[in-house]
C-alpha cells in the first residue's frame, strides 16, 4: 500500500457529527475494504466557515480506493496527494479535545 494525505474541507458541523462519520469510516475500512484502505490518523481543523474539516493520513492501494471509501462513508475527499517521504522531527502532541468544545 502507498501512503496518502487526504484533505476533507468543512464536512462536519461539530465533533459529535464528526464522531459518527468516524465510526462509519472505520467500519467501512475495516470490514468492507480492509485490503484496499487503512486509516492511519486524522487531524481535525477549524475551517473559516466555522465547520470542521480534516487532514487525514491513509494507506491505500491507490487514490481510486480512497475515493470509493469516501463515497461509501458519505464524506468528501477534496484532495488526495501521495506521500513521497516522511520526516519526523517530533512525535505528535497529545490530543487536546477541549480545543474543539
Tell me what the structure shows.
With 101 residues, this protein is an alpha+beta fold. It has one domain: ORF SCO4226, nickel-binding ferredoxin-like monomer (Alpha-Beta Plaits). The protein has helices at 15-32, 63-73, and strands at residues 2-12, 37-46, 52-60, 79-82. The chain has a four-stranded antiparallel beta sheet with strand order 2-3-1-4. A hairpin with a 5-residue loop joins strand 2 and strand 3. The longest helix has 18 residues, at 15-32. The N and C termini lie far apart (36 Å). The relative contact order is 0.28. Pfam families: SCO4226-like.
Short synopsis of the structure:
InterPro entries: SCO4226-like (IPR025336). The protein has 101 residues and is an alpha+beta fold. Helix content is 29%, strand content 34%.
Low-confidence stretches: none
Strand order in space, largest sheet = 2-3-1-4
- Determine Rg (CA atoms, Å): 14 Å
What is the CATH fold-level name?
Alpha-Beta Plaits
The biggest beta sheet reads: 4 strands, antiparallel
CATH architectural type:
2-Layer Sandwich
What's the order of the H and E elements?
Answer: EHEEHE
- Note the total helix count: 2
Number of strands: 4
> What's the shape?
globular
**Helix proportion of residues, in percent?**
25-40%
Rounded mean pLDDT score: 93
CATH class: Alpha Beta
N-to-C span? 36 Å
Based on secondary structure, the structural category is alpha+beta
Strand content: 25-35%
Count of all domains: 1
CATH superfamily: ORF SCO4226, nickel-binding ferredoxin-like monomer
Considering the chains and any ligands shown, give keywords for the structure.
alpha+beta; Alpha-Beta Plaits; 4-stranded antiparallel β-sheet
